[in-house]
Specification:
By secondary structure, this protein is α/β, with parallel strands linked by helices. Helix content is 46%, strand content 15%. The chain has helices at 33-46, 50-56, 59-62, 65-85, 101-107, 113-130, 146-155, 178-190, 211-222, 245-255, 262-273, 286-294, 306-311; strands at residues 11-15, 93-96, 136-142, 161-168, 171-177, 195-198, 260-261, 277-281, 299-303. The strands form 2 sheets. The protein has a 5-stranded mixed β-sheet. It has a 4-stranded parallel β-sheet with strand order 2-1-8-9, sandwiched between helices. Helix 4 (65-85) runs parallel beside helix 5 (101-107). It is globular and about 50 Å long. The chain starts with 10 loop residues before the first strand and ends with a helix.
Amino acid sequence: MNPGSPAGQKRGLVFPGQGSQGIGMLADCADHPALLRVFDVVSSCCGSDLRKLALEGPAPVLGETTVTQPLMLAADIAFYEIYRASGGAPPEVLAGHSLGEYPALYAAGVLDLARLADLVKTRARLMQEAVPSGQGAMAAILGLAEGPLVALCAGITSGTVEAVNFNCPGQIVVAGTKPAVEALIEQARAAGAKRAILLPVSVPAHSSLMRDPAREFEAVLAGMDFRPPRIPVIHNADLETHSDAPGIRRALAAQLYRPVRWGDTIAAFRDRYGVVEILECGPGRVLSGLGRRCLPELRHEALENLDAMKQYA
């Protein structure tokens, strides 16, 4: 444990998803042997040099779902492997934000890296194909409560817009058809939102527009043999843990069209598992920032570089 943490305290680990990507995302870990091994496997499965993309861009390519999802999978898992190689202890419980649920399943021993990379590649393709390019969108709305924002979404009848990520008090993400999302942004601003901005995401994830790809994805999942998790994973779709393959399959398929309730996930870390420290394993500090706003009484830190990984080993 790091010197600043009480001995024996319970630790949870969370993995970021789409939105945490960016040029330079590998920080000072880019040449670490564990990262090179992970990126080699995932890049081979996906047919592109993901490490080079992470280091050099271009940024618009990094934002394409079929690139972002395998890239974040590789980055999250690589950071986890470096954390473990540095002496980091296994956590009490795991979770991931959207795509981040897949590296969480890897850390739990549910699926090996190559099969997981193939699965994420298929997931990204199905999601990208579900809505024609430029017709879907997601936006972050800051400063409006859940009830008023959901009501605004329901009032927009020309197209689809839904609240899909309940990240923390005062930060909710909406998704849907682009004109409807843009209309919601204007109405949210008029209703007093502090900020309302489009996100660099190319598909309306976790919305009802993903029901068709979810059905196709369910068929893909049916052919996969998941091992029982060694560490509990709290799933986005139902806030439950599943120890059996059918339960994991259902949760992963439902995740495509159900909201991510991140605040409730963090609360489950505390209430069910007695966690007092939550570490974000992957590029950036998005989830640790959300965690502080959800439950400021817990310790939230980001394993975003080698120094942090060694500190929390």
